[in-house]
Amino acid sequence: MIKKKSNINGILLFDKPKGISSNKALQKVKKLFNAKKAGHCGTLDPMATGLLPICFGNATKTAQYLINSSKKYNVIAKFGVKTTTGDSEGEVIERDRYLKTYEIEEIRKILDSFIGEISQIPPMHSALKVNGTPLYKFARKGKSIKRESRIVNIHSILINSFDNKQIILDISCSKGTYIRTLIEDIAIKLGTVAYVKELRRISIDAFKEKGMISFSRLLQYKNNELESLLKPIDYGLMHLPFITIDNEDSRRFFNGQSFEYKKDIKETDLAIRIYNNKRILIGLANQNVNGQIQPVNVFVNN
């Protein structure tokens, strides 16, 4: 007998292991939870580990508000070696046999030059799609496709340790930043080459490393205990404004109808969290041109 899928809602702060794609990790967790609907926020490369928020049920409708969040990574980079992929999974294509000795202040000065808005060209070995095909599929066939540069924001780069051949950094950056490209560009300014040896995502704004759960830990829980590990749907949405509405407006909201909010509310371009009078999140809305509350995402059976 096939077990019926569960309509669960919430967010799991999953600690993705090395050597598995984000989608493969999602499918494994979804199967373990026997969930009807699930999706992940912010793809991690197979060689990367760390925070991969997995949204279940109604939480999948909040993913668009989480993907745009700033992210923080712990990076181990090796100087003097360049690979085809920019990380440890690629083949070595260049070695700097005359790697100079760097002073820590020289390194700091170069790192500081990358703080703020910078231009990046996405690497060929990435999931970015061109005409519907991921770039890495072209790369595997030895093809190079022209890529447009993009602007990303590097908030901070902190040195944890440095021994001339290897550096460990904490990097905080905006959505869309390619850490492999950043490390290669840093190396160029230092007059050498480099690749990402290890990469771990440790936070996505509200989601922190402390709350992450590995797959091996998930296996220690019984099926009826797994749902207790989920964060509420609004866990990562606390930066958004909110209002509480009565039963009458709740009915309008569930029917997709706009309505006048009965209390004063500041104008905002942000999405608005909508709670019913039982303090349950029932969806997200925008303010329309008339200042009315316009439903955008309605959460049924939350």
Question: What does this protein look like?
Answer:
- By secondary structure, this protein is an alpha+beta fold.
- It has three domains: 10-68 and 207-236, Pseudouridine synthase (2-Layer Sandwich), CATH 3.30.2350.10; 71-202, Pseudouridine synthase (2-Layer Sandwich), CATH 3.30.2350.10; 242-298, Archaeosine Trna-guanine Transglycosylase, Chain: A, domain 4 (Roll), CATH 2.30.130.
- Helices cover 18% and strands 32% of the residues.
- The chain has helices spanning 22-33, 63-67, 104-112, 135-140, 179-189, 215-218, 247-254, and strands at residues 10-16, 38-40, 49-56, 71-79, 81-83, 92-95, 116-120, 129-130, 133-134, 150-162, 166-173, 194-204, 207-208, 242-244, 272-275, 281-287, 293-298.
- Strands 1, 2, 3, 4, 7, 10, 11, 12 and 13 form a nine-stranded mixed sheet that branches. A four-stranded mixed sheet has the order 14-15-16-17, with helices on one face.
- α7 (247-254) links the parallel β14 (242-244) and β15 (272-275).
- The protein is globular, with a radius of gyration of 22 Å.
Quick overview of this protein structure:
The protein is an alpha+beta fold and 302 residues long. Helix content is 18%, strand content 32%. The radius of gyration is 22 Å and the shape is globular.
Task: Give the total of beta strands.
Answer: 17
First and last CA, distance: 28 Å
Number of structural units classed as domains = 3
Largest sheet data = 9 strands, mixed
- Which CATH architecture of the largest domain would you pick? 2-Layer Sandwich
**CA-atom Rg in angstroms:** 22 Å
Q: What would the CATH topology of the largest domain be?
A: Pseudouridine synthase
CATH superfamily of the largest domain: Pseudouridine synthase
Mean pLDDT: 90
Low-confidence stretches: none
Shape: globular
For the record, the CATH class of the largest domain is Alpha Beta
State the helical fraction: 10-25%
DSSP strand content: 25-35%
Helix/strand order: EHEEHEEEHEEEHEEHEEHEHEEE
Number of helices: 7
Oligomer: single chain
Structural class: alpha+beta
